[in-house]
Amino acid sequence: MVKEYLDFAEFEDTVKTFTRECKIKGKPLPKTGSNSAKDSKALIIQDLLMSFTDGDQDVFFELWEEHIPSSAREQEAVGQKLEFYLHIHFSIYLLKHAVGKPDKAALDERIAYFKTYLETKGAALSQTTEFLPFYALPFVPNPMIHPSFKELFQDSWESDLKTRLEEFLSATLKANESPRLLTLYKENTQCSQETLQQLHQQLVESERKTMTYLKRFNKIQADYHNLIGVTAELVDSLEATVNGKMITPEDLQSVCLRLFSNQMKQSVAHSIDFTRPGTASTMLRASLVPAKVQEIPLLPSLDYEKLKKDLIDGSDRLKAFLLQALRWRLTTSHPGEQRDTVLQAYINNDLLDCYSNGQRSFLMLIQSKCEVVRQYTARLINAFASLAEGRLYLSQNPRLLRMLEGRLKAEDKYSLTRENVLGALQKLSLR
To answer: 360's torsion region: left (phi>0), alpha (psi -120 to 50) or beta?
Structure first.
């Protein structure tokens, strides 16, 4: 695997040293298919170059489309331009290399093939100044004497094109033969990123639970300290009673007020007569009965993949409805577990694309041409910013702040979008 990568990266001296040391240490290298792959690549390049030189258009483009990835041919600028010039080369080949007058039928066939290319794949370059004159080539009766195409019929033009073709083939075919070590690295990197994202989500959830438990602990600790104080007072009162000093109703009222001050409003506690026999003990026993917790149903789950697709590709009307529904789902949910669940689902499914760096993301909606879509997007972001976990999630995207600032400057002074953007920015400054 190591040798395969070194061969791929063309570390020739390193490969020799590595092979020699493996033999010295008695660790023979397993035979790999790298040599056969190299031979295969060399044969493909040789066949393509031979077809280029011989002007064999059909064979060349058959091999070209079979072995050169469509992404390299149709999406990369170098591949697009090279393919355009190759079509020119084959369309005028008979004019340059035919002995005597070229066969009219064969020439017409090549010109027709070039026309078809110009109307289909070649149309992508029709706005490029470099190629604009060549769109007239099929309609010129004798391009050999036309000043615009004089360069095409020089030997140097064909030679340069062949060199460019050879370099392109070597680079492209080499890029397709990714060694196993490199493949493992890429797969592991992708897996690590996914694992890191999952761990981050778990960390956020753990921090939320920790804060909840910390609040409970602080309350229990405060109640404990209060109880110790009340107990000390009761012990003092019992000692005083033993010594013949009676407990006054005011003392009992004071102790009971301290006991129940955390369980009811101060005004309500003061209105209860704790000196009446049985009142304090009854309330104490009642406080031990756990309160009935109202069961709040969890909301049904959503198809987030479809949601995100519709938010990007849907109509403005659909986007507005979805944005409003998503915001209402969050803001109208019951505070506590239900709201936490809704927010966590949004974050886990990366609803706002804060973990994504793609060009087409949810955050682009803040720049929509539709004012309603912009407003509802700002409202949803503002709703996220109202919650601590939401702010933490929004902070994962470094572009968000710049986009919100840009929107703030672009919006009218009194627009609802501007107010919500401003509100979100203010909340994002909180912890």
So the answer is: beta
Assigned token pair, 135:
């769109």
pLDDT digits (tens, 9 = 90+) for 186-231: 667 666 677 777 788 788 778 878 888 888 888 888 888 888 887 8
What is the pTM (predicted TM-score) of this model? 0.38
